[in-house]
DNA sequence: CTATTTGTATTATATCATATAATACAAATA
DNA sequence: TATTTGTATTATATGATATAATACAAATAG
């Protein structure tokens, strides 16, 4: 799994790490239970600070995507269950995003089209990788 | 159109303003061409600084949602067209959000169900308000 | 013309988020 | 025992966010 960090982005590095790992899981590039690189390895590869990677990993841990311990490092969880708190927050984000799209003269049909494309993209990537 | 600012949120006030105005437009609470409150009025009503409101308005202006001039104040644009840049950025955000949902054991069907609900909520609110 | 109402610019201040750097520590393993 | 994990600590730097108090520019209403 290759990670690209955009140093010129206003998006914080540790959230870039978070986002790409989640996208990686959804697309099957990272499988459930799979190990992530050590924070030192990751930091060296990408050319950033160790603690920034640690911060990204900890965010993923708090959000329930990965588990971390000293002996085994960081691994993608085997079961990432949807709790009510997550679902509500995600719905809020989705509401805003759909509002933006709707306001930009995109029809509900077009919006659903885009959503379907993305979801099927995850599906095909997963099928190819497994 | 009533605006609620959460002072305890980590979300910046000026983006809270932005988000709620976009949601207001999508739901028809704010109509195309309608005037927004003056920055002073807004600031006084909500109990925040004038320049924070100005910052929110300017963000909306840069993103193409409203237009501002000294004589008439701020108004929702009459045509909010979707340019390619916006569409690409929105698609990126949607990709991440759908990835989060998919990883949380939500099926494509359930995800689309949620999306449909939100879109039809906008629609009904609009129909009632007009 | 004058007073009022727009948004904006300026300057200063305060707080927090982000990121780096250089070490040091704790825990487990080979 | 040496190595590899993640973590903690302290310091530093930069930028974002928000407020405060004025002042200015542009247009309108009286």
Q: How would you describe what is shown here?
A:
The structure is a homodimer of 130-residue chains. Chain A folds into two domains: 13-76, Orthogonal Bundle (Arc Repressor Mutant, subunit A); 84-129, no CATH class. Chain A is built from five helices and two strands. Chain A has helices at 13-26, 39-46, 50-62, 84-103, 108-129, and strands at residues 66-69, 73-76. With 130 residues, chain A is mainly alpha-helical. The longest helix of chain A has 22 residues, at 108-129. In chain A, 59% of the residues lie in helices and 6% in strands. Chains A and B meet through helix 1, helix 4 and helix 5 of A and helix 1, helix 4 and helix 5 of B. Chain A binds a DNA duplex (30 and 30 nucleotides) through residues 10, 12-14, 38-40, 48-52, 54-55, 57-58, 68-74.
Summarize the helices and strands and which ones pair or pack.
Two copies of one chain form a homodimer.
Chain A: H1 13-26, H2 39-46, H3 50-62, E1 66-69, E2 73-76, H4 84-103, H5 108-129
Antiparallel strand pairs in A: 1-2
Chain A binds a DNA duplex (30 and 30 nucleotides) through α3.
Structure in a nutshell:
The first copy, chain A, is mainly alpha-helical and 130 residues long. Helices cover 59% and strands 6% of the residues of chain A.
Number of continuous helical runs of chain A? 5
The main sheet of chain A orders its strands as 1-2
* Element-by-element helix/strand order of chain A: HHHEEHH
Number of strands of chain A: 2
How many separate domains of chain A?
A: 2
Average residue pLDDT of chain A: 94
Question: Which oligomeric form is depicted?
Answer: homodimer
Q: What helical percentage do the residues of chain A reach? A: 55-70%
| SS-derived structural category of chain A | mainly alpha
The N- and C-terminal alpha carbons of chain A lie at a distance of 14 Å
**Outline type of chain A:** globular
Characterize the largest beta sheet of chain A: strand count, sense, and whether it forms a barrel. 2 strands, antiparallel
CATH first level of the largest domain in chain A: which class? Mainly Alpha
CATH architecture of the largest domain in chain A: Orthogonal Bundle
Low-confidence stretches of chain A: none
Question: Hey, which two chains have the biggest interface?
Answer: A-B, 40 and 40 residues
Q: Identify the CATH homologous superfamily of the largest domain in chain A.
A: Winged helix-like DNA-binding domain superfamily/Winged helix DNA-binding domain
Strand content of chain A: 5-15%
């Amino acid at each position: 799994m290759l990670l690209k960090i955009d140093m010129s982005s206003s998006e914080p590095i540790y959230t870039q790490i978070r986002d790409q790992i989640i996208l990686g899981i959804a697309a099957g590039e990272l499988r459930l239970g799979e190990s992530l690189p050590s924070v030192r390895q990751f930091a060296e590869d990408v050319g950033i600070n160790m603690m920034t990677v640690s911060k990204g990993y900890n965010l993923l841990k708090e959000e329930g995507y990965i588990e971390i311990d000293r002996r085994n490092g960081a691994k993608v969880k085997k079961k990432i269950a949807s709790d009510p708190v997550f679902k509500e927050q995600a719905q809020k984000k989705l509401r805003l995003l759909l509002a933006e799209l709707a306001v930009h003269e995109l029809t509900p049909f077009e919006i659903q089209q885009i959503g379907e494309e993305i979801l099927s993209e995850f599906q095909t990537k997963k099928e190819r990788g497994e």
